[in-house]
Amino acid sequence: MTMNNMAKLGSIAALILVMAPPAVAKNEPPELVTCDSSIGTIALIEGSNAGWTEWNLNSPRPLLNQLALQSGCFTPRSPASQEPADFLVTAIAGTQEEIDQSMEVAKGAATEALLRSGAASSVLGRVPFAGSVLGMFGGFGGKKKTFAAGLQVVSPATGQTVAAGKGAVSKSQIKFKKAQYSWAADAAGASGYNSNKDGRKLAEAFIIAFNQVVSQRELIEAAAVSAPAPEAEEPRAVVAIDTVMRSGAAADANEVRSLRAGTELNPTGNREGLFIEVADNYGTTGWVSVEDLQ
Predict the structure, then answer these.
(1) Structural domains of the chain, count
(2) Are residues 200 and 259 in the same domain?
(3) Contact 93/99 with Cβ under 8 angstroms?
(4) DSSP characters for the chain?
């Protein structure tokens, strides 16, 4: 890796530190972040670490959909929509060690994605301050049973991780039964997590992870803007029978090369009568009768 790239990686790592949310005071319950506008549509995916099943809990998808809607930060993709989601969000849950390991991998992938996409410099130029908080990936200690949850945001355009967040709770701080936390009770209730202590702890862990993901909004948006536009698929023509490529659009034109059935050709867009101009994978150009193509 060049010194320039190493410097960029260091800057990106610093930026991830900067944009991690401020540490919540001990014993202070988290509040759900809010956004003036949606970052984009999301499709939720259950990861391989589905710890909720071990705790006899349901999928966190309804919970996360509620958090997205209540915060206004993301728009859950409608199953009826013909448009793909802007981002894929993978949810995982498990022991603190399992989630720590997964999140470290996600953090590294996000850093590499920003470097490769060229988004790092554009985001770094807009950050007016520095910080030193990496609580989103830090240890949570304690001897009590810890419920850990993680979220990983992936850009479908590049397949790269662009943000990640983690929460771990050994003792729930959110008072789900109080009116001021009705938003948390509604979100937890969507997945049936509001009925027992384990569910409420996991719900709080996902709320923390969600807040951390949203705190990286600039990273997510910059990576999305810098993602290359999908290339239009080249039209292909497949030879149906053994035939020949000719130098002109006529049955008696000189033979350029023979073509076996199944050969794939690239049409150039030129056509004369029953003949189209094509190019093979070696760059040879000629004319083939459409009657000889699939």
Answers:
(1) 2
(2) no
(3) yes
(4) --HHHHHHHHHHHHHHHHHSPPPPPTTPPP-----SS---EEEEEEEEEEHHHHTT---SHHHHHHHHHHHTS-EEPPTT-SSPPSEEEEEEEE-HHHHHHHHHHHHHHHHHHHHHHTHHHHHHTT--------GGGS----SS--EEEEEEEEETTTTEEEEEEEEEESS--S-TTSGGGHHHHHHHHHTTGGGSHHHHHHHHHHHHHHHHHHTTHHHHHHHHHHSPPPPPPPP-EEB-SSEEEESSSSTTSPEEEEE-TT-EEEEEEEEETTEEEEE-TTS-EEEEEGGGB-
Mark which of 176, 206, 226 sits at the end of a domain. 226
Cα–Cα distance for residue pair 1/8, rounded to 1 Å: 11
pLDDT tens-digit map of 106-121: 555 555 544 444 444 4
Does residue 220 share a domain with residue 251? no
pTM of the entire predicted model: 0.63
> Is residue 72 situated within a structural domain?
yes
In this structure, the answer to whether residues 32 and 116 fall within a common structural domain is yes
pLDDT of 19-71, one tens digit each? 444 444 456 888 999 999 999 998 888 877 888 988 899 999 999 999 999 99
Confirm whether 151 is domain-assigned: yes
Same domain, 158 and 202: yes
- 16 is in which domain, residue-wise? 3-226
114 is a domain residue: yes
Statement to judge: residues 29 and 161 lie in one domain: yes
Structural tokens at position 11: 């800057």
Domain membership flag for residue 231 = no
